[in-house]
Amino acid sequence: MDWMEAMRERHSVRTYTDKPIEGETLDALEKLIGMYNLESGLHIQLVRNEPKAFDSAMAHYGKFSGVKNYLALIGPKDERKLDELCGYYGEKLVLTAQTLGLNTCWVGLTFKKVPDAFRLYTGERLVLVIAVGYGETQGTAHKSKPAAAVSKGEDAPEWFTRGVEAALLAPTAINQQKFFFTYHNGGVSAKARLGPFSKVDLGIAKAHFELGSGKDWTVWL
After folding, report:
1. Is the whole model's pTM more than 0.90, yes or no?
2. Above pLDDT 70, what percent of the chain?
3. Distance CA 88, CA 85 (A)
4. Strand ranges (DSSP E) for 16-152?
């Protein structure tokens, strides 16, 4: 499965089986978490076999069931782009999880913080979590805006078009897609419009754009 296949096949899943994350799948996920933490300065942690965070009225309202594993997206409070970084690296983990046969769901509010489930050091903040495990279903695709609603650029190259198409496959809070990409002289600017968790969404969309376009972080103006 390549990255575009993972983007197309990955959908939010809220109901999970009891099958544990273990063996080579667990090793691959934890290895990547360690690598991304070193690269980004974040403190992402995989919490396993912990059902209390999704055993609350809010979680039941959000229609979550069987969630026992989740990624805690944590980083330094004084990092100006903390929300965006969590979105960017969290989504890379989400797509990798998809290639490993796992399912995921971004969760901003409908979970409960459980003491001692993860390590939160002084000066750090938990931004949000990502439910992860083996879903009872594969979820369903979300509706998407047209490319013209989230991008512009005269004489933009094909790679820009591919990047925007990939960004439109990105999950966003309440499917708001409040990001915007502009092509200019070989580079791309990206911004988040107002909306809940829109800066996290921007990071998610930028990860999709890079993977879809074939460019790396140097593309951003």
Report:
1. yes
2. 99
3. 5
4. 45-47, 70-76, 103-107, 124-133, 151-152
Q: Which two tokens mark 138?
A: 């594969």
Are the CB atoms for 157 and 170 separated by under 8 Å? no
Q: Report the amino acid identity of residue 118.
A: F
How far apart are the C-alpha atoms of 212 and 162, rounded to whole Å?
A: 6
Residue 142, classified by CB atoms within 10 Å of its CB into exposed (0-12), middle (13-18) or buried (19+), is middle
Given a cut of 80, is residue 129 above it in pLDDT?
Answer: yes
DSSP 133: E
**pLDDT at residue 115, as a whole number:** 85
Which has the closest alpha carbon to 127: 44, 216, 7?
A: 44
Q: Give the Cα separation of 188 and 198 in Å (integer).
A: 18
On the CB side of 176, CA atoms within 13 Å amount to: 17
Is domain 147-219 annotated with CATH 3.40.109.30? Answer: yes
**Domain 3-133: CATH superfamily, name plus number:** NADH Oxidase (3.40.109.10)
The domain limits of the chain are: 3-133, 147-219
The yes-or-no answer to whether 3-133 and 147-219 have a common fold is yes
For residue 125, what pLDDT band results from cuts at 50, 70 and 90?
Answer: very high
Q: What is the DSSP letter of 15?
A: B
Closest CA to 44 of 101, 97, 8: 97
